Amino acid sequence: MKVLLVYAHPEPRSLNGSLRTVAVRELEASGHEVQVSDLYADGWKSQVDRADFPSLSPDERLVPAAASGTDFVAGTLTADVMSEIAKLHWADALILQFPMWWFAMPAILKGWVDRVFAYGFAYGVGEHSDRRWGDRYGEGTLAGKRAMLIVTAGGWEEHYAERGINGPIDDLLFPINHGILYYPGYEVLPPYVVYRVDRFDESGFEPVAEGLRERMRTLFTCAPIPYRRQNGGDYLIPSMQLRPGLGRPDATGYALHLDGDGAAREG
Ligand code: FAD
């Protein structure tokens, strides 16, 4: 199988750099083909601006979604974006690897998503009407492929538990897992999160590396997070509300969007 690893850390000699090497070696040892997009090393441009849309005339007002759709359909998006889109078509699985910075991904990786997940490719796909709200959340261009996160965090695992002060890790990663990866169709796997990394040493590294090797060995077999499909009958259209009677009556928030009423939380 083919795997694209998008790596967002400025220092190759970092813990993230070591974990990337572990992941790539294990995937290749399992017989997979791997490509790495190393965003800092490649000097990835993270901001969306006029230069992204060659078809836009200089006096035209920039409407990013519309301009993205025009250049995507025409095949005239910039070469760096087109190259990443080609890699996404090529890959059976996508891995995003990053250190958690301010409870989110580093800006360079968010900018990769903003620019590469073009209108007509990752969003704005399928029929949009009062009967159907597009092909998204389980359907879309990238349906049939898998995606997962590898994340390092300075905070302790307890700080990210259900009652932890940082908020539950599943909730913090929901906008990425559900909003960015599930949206264009990926089956999203539970993330591999390494906690309390800033005081890490060699004795801490090997168990974490072995855990990562195991996750790479099971990349194409482990069960995805059971998000509800938008067009599977669970949601009202066009309000996109979860149907009355689904989900625990007292439940609110992200867990409502897990099939099984939140019983199967990602771990
Ligand atoms: P490094 O700094 O490279 O390494 C961490 C430790 O691992 C070091 O002790 C290093 O010696 C050791 N190490 C590295 N490689 C190896 C190896 N091969 N073998 C053994 N040991 C090794 N954390 C949060 O939890 N939440 C946040 O919101 C958050 N926000 C942040 C915002 C910013 C701007 C920054 C800079 C940090 C933030 N952090 C946060 C902490 C951040 O998540 C961690 O610093 C980061 O995940 C560490 O990853 P790294 O690859 O940079 O580690």
From TrEMBL:
Query: GO cellular component terms?
Result: cytosol
Q: What is the lineage of its organism?
A: Bacteria, Pseudomonadati, Pseudomonadota, Alphaproteobacteria, Hyphomicrobiales
Species of the source: Acuticoccus sediminis
UniProt record similarity statement: Belongs to the NAD(P)H dehydrogenase (quinone) family.
Pfam families according to UniProt = Flavodoxin_2 (PF02525)
Flavodoxin-like fold domain boundaries: 1-204
Q: Which domain of life is it from?
A: Bacteria
The GO terms this record gives for MF are: NAD(P)H dehydrogenase (quinone) activity
Key words, A-Z: Oxidoreductase
InterPro entries (UniProt xref) = Flavodoxin_fold, Flavoprotein-like_sf, NAD(P)H_dehydrogenase_qn
Q: What is this protein called?
A: NAD(P)H dehydrogenase
